[in-house]
Design a protein that fits this description.
Number of strands: 19
Structural class: alpha/beta
Strand content: 15-25%
CATH class of the largest domain: Alpha Beta
CATH topology of the largest domain: Rossmann fold
CATH superfamily of the largest domain: P-loop containing nucleotide triphosphate hydrolases
Mean pLDDT: 81
CATH architecture of the largest domain: 3-Layer(aba) Sandwich
Strand order of the largest sheet: 7-6-10-12-5-13-14-15-16
Number of helices: 12
């Protein structure tokens, strides 16, 4: 049979849609047949010896036949079977069409019918999702998770986190025994001023006699195989009505290579399954890679970071204070080890905060001395903000100030005037003050001029405030200005950073 002239597409259906129909037919017949019966059952249309493509089929069938045939496709038996891999199929087996994926039509959307996101602790813990906290060994990550867990169990805010109610918390800790956990919890409730009786049923620990290994790597199949403990854990969470689960450390919950992205990814996926099946918010505590200092707020600080990025919806870091930060915040070098910073590293479900939360470790003497042994000193974390000239000035407020500095002076309507602040206190008659020290005084409500001047000097020394040149729209000449550490000079044509 000779080729059929395709003819014009039916009204309302573009030619591209007809070709798409023919592509479907090409997929069906590829490698399995060289002819197809037309819809009326009267003719057999041969295809080329090579695998047909959409254009071949369009030319052979014509537009009307191609459309009619694809409309009937689910009901057509091609007789000689079908194999998507192109291997042979028994001639007597009927053609099996692939099972279609379900689709959902979202529009129109009634916003009142959309449930709010199920945050347990907004910004950090959400039901049915996995959070990963990345920290080096000995940094205080266990203290942080225990104390945040206590705050969630009590339903009280802590360090800027505000739980949305009172939750039941389970902690799985593979590094410390029950006695050590009791020491830390005793210090934590004392630091926070919590009564212990009310926490009896809302905060629980996994028994230390169990190694909570939910998966093992099988070298033969090169896959992670879930252990019987996986289902035990799911059943335990459901039975005890757990809302929040802390797992510390994540790497000890599967037998495999912690440095393998693939194994790490599938282990994290199993924990995500636990979160979804139990409707819990799960926080996995994970180690940093080697030489990760200076990577606060960087998701790449985690071992197997690329695997975690794809599974965890929220990633945060906890790092000790660096020498440079200690100098900036006027902390003595020998005291630096007692300070920690918490930073968002990834936030898929909320805005990532650019601000660090700071903590200081304080020791509490327990009432457990014996006739032969002294009482234990146990650490707990206390939210902290820099003292001295920075007393009462939080990092979030500093970042707000920096944003205003980069916007420059505002006009009478509250809009950017095109003029910027400067390190110089000199000003012309009738001109509003451009001195950055004056702006610091008004923004932070500082009374003493000397204190404002010290803040200017400190931030200038540590490059939190930098000097640049800009073209004044009023004077039409180059002038000096001040910008913050957040400023990106490469994105501004008429602002040039001054070499210092």
């Amino acid at each position: 049979m000779s080729a059929v002239q395709p003819g014009p597409p039916p009204a309302g259906e573009p030619l591209s849609a007809i070709i798409a129909r023919c592509a479907t037919l090409a997929y069906v017949v590829h490698g399995t047949m060289n002819a197809v019966e037309e819809p009326d059952g009267c003719k057999v249309v041969p295809f080329p010896a090579k695998a047909p493509d959409a254009n071949d089929i369009h030319r052979q069938l014509g537009t009307d036949a191609a459309r009619a045939l694809t409309d009937k496709l689910p009901d057509i038996d091609f007789g000689n079977g079908y194999d998507p891999d192109g291997t042979s199929v028994k001639a007597e087996s009927p053609r099996q069409l692939p099972v279609l994926l379900p689709v959902y039509k979202p529009f129109p959307i009634d916003e009142t019918s959309i449930p709010p996101r199920a945050w347990a602790v907004p910004g950090f813990l959400m039901r049915r999702h996995v959070t990963v906290l990345v920290a080096p060994s000995g940094s205080g990550k266990s203290l942080l998770t225990l104390q945040l867990g206590l705050a969630a169990a009590k339903g009280q805010s802590w360090a800027g986190w505000v739980p949305r109610g009172r939750f039941k918390v389970l902690v799985v800790n593979s590094e410390d025994d029950i006695d050590e956990m009791r020491r830390r919890l005793a210090a934590a409730v004392r630091a926070k001023g919590y009564g212990q009786t009310e926490l009896r049923d809302s905060f629980v620990l996994a028994d230390e006699s169990y190694e909570v290994v939910i998966a093992r790597f099988d070298a033969r199949s090169k896959t992670l195989i879930r252990t019987p403990l996986f289902e035990q854990l799911v059943a335990t969470i459901i039975k005890n009505k757990i809302d929040i689960l802390f797992v510390d450390p994540f790497a000890e919950t599967f037998e495999g290579d912690e440095n393998s992205n693939s194994e790490l990814k599938w282990a994290c996926i199993l924990w995500r399954e636990v979160a979804r099946r139990t409707n819990t918010a799960i926080c996995l505590v994970h180690h940093t890679k080697k030489y990760a200092s200076g990577m606060a707020g960087d998701v790449d600080a985690a071992r197997g970071a690329s695997a975690l990025i794809g599974v965890a919806r929220i990633v945060a870091t906890l790092f000790p204070m660096t020498p440079a930060e200690a100098k900036l915040m006027q902390v003595q070098e020998e005291q630096r080890v007692h300070y920690l910073r918490f930073d968002d590293a990834k936030a898929n479900l909320n805005l990532k905060s650019p601000f660090a939360r700071w903590f200081r470790k304080e020791s509490f003497v327990l009432d457990n001395a014996t006739a032969d042994l002294p009482a234990d000193d146990v650490g707990a974390l206390i939210p902290w903000s820099p003292p001295g000239i920075m007393d009462g000035i939080s990092e979030p407020r500093i970042q707000e100030f920096f944003a205003r500095v980069d916007a420059g002076l505002l006009d009478s309507d509250g809009l950017p005037s095109g003029e910027f602040y400067t390190f110089s206190a000199a000003k012309k008659e009738g001109e509003a003050s451009r001195y950055i020290g004056d702006f610091i005084k008004s923004f932070f409500q500082i009374v003493e001029q000397a204190r404002a001047a010290k803040i200017v000097a400190l931030w200038k020394e540590h490059h939190r405030l930098i000097e640049a040149d800009y073209t004044s729209p009023k004077q039409r000449k180059s002038r000096k200005c001040v910008h913050s550490e957040r400023w990106k000079p490469e994105k501004t044509n008429d602002l040039v950073q001054t070499e210092t």
